[in-house]
Specification:
- The chain is of the alpha+beta class.
- The protein contains 8 helices and 21 strands.
- The chain starts with 6 loop residues before the first strand and ends in a 31-residue tail after the last helix.
- 49% of the residues are buried.
Amino acid sequence: MKAAPGRVLVVGGGIFGITAALELRRRGWLVTVLDPGPIPHEGASSTDVSKVVRMDYGSDRFYHELAELALEGWDRWNHDWPVPFYHEDGFLILSPTPMAPGGYEYESFEVLRARGYAPERLDANSASGRYPEWDFTRYPDGYLNTRAGWAESGAVVERLSSLCRAAGVTFLTGSMRSLMSHGSRVSGVVTTGADRIEADRVLVAAGAWTPGLVPWLSHVLWPTAHPVLHFQPDDPDAFRGSGFPPWAADISGTGWYGFPALPDGRVKVAHHGPGARARPDDRGAVSAEHEARTRDFLRYSIPALADAPVVHRRVCMYCDSFDGDLFAAADPSREGLVVASGGSGHGFKFAPALGAIFADVLEGRDNRFAFRFAWRSLGQVATEEARFTGGLSE
């Protein structure tokens, strides 16, 4: 029997860690996942009811192509798994002004068309009949991308963790306190409970906790808090189906996005922006000021939700990178250590493609997407798009 390549300890059982663990196990590694548990962990950003899945990234074709690859993976998972967790309901993108070159909406629309897709251009007149819950007074332009939708994120993590266990991945309950090393080579971790876990490679994929575990990266990665509210409308069916797909309303300007009603009728409305820096274990609660601001937005956009009761509040923690790109790279100063983090509010949609990227980085193999996620520092030249990567997934 061929010997395993070695032992890998994955620190973190969210979507980054769990996809990496499954792929590395499939490649023959002996894999252990260390997480405070249970998985899905209630504090992880990927432990949620929904994330947007889309290719709309302005003129940034890199992320468009990565999302395109991930969508093929979502199709496979839907085919292979007993229950489909990706719902291709489309993605409604609304613009506060006529779409024009240089704008997020226009550039996303044009890239989709240039790459063979057929997004449906909308105006206020045509949209009002199709999407009756919307007031299009402030949105004269936009489009529907039919090759998009949303995923049941927490359920996906739970399914992937089950596949990991079936494949022989070991799960340990606990948290990392520090790395162990022999010289410059990492040899495992010490847990907060003083347990020593040895490994040939350590992959830190701890989401918003990552900067605290690898503090030498805290100048390029940091945790930020983002508010999420769930509203309970009187008629949930009005917020389902073709009349209410996942949406973004002037997302690059105001940050508002949301989802169709869940089976229990809740409608999730969220906000993407710079966020407030906060420790993930001390993230606080959604403020009354944010709820009031959300209701103001709803009054001029989705009036039937404006006075609906809030039935769930959540502060979602991102691990932001300084340039908005994911961070997946081997530490050049610590042999055997790999960091996979920096989801920056838009990483979940790539889940079906992430495991291969992270495993290739750990094994030192070429990967056509990994260059964008390489080890880097402030001051290095970033890509265009002014770092609006459209973080709509949270």
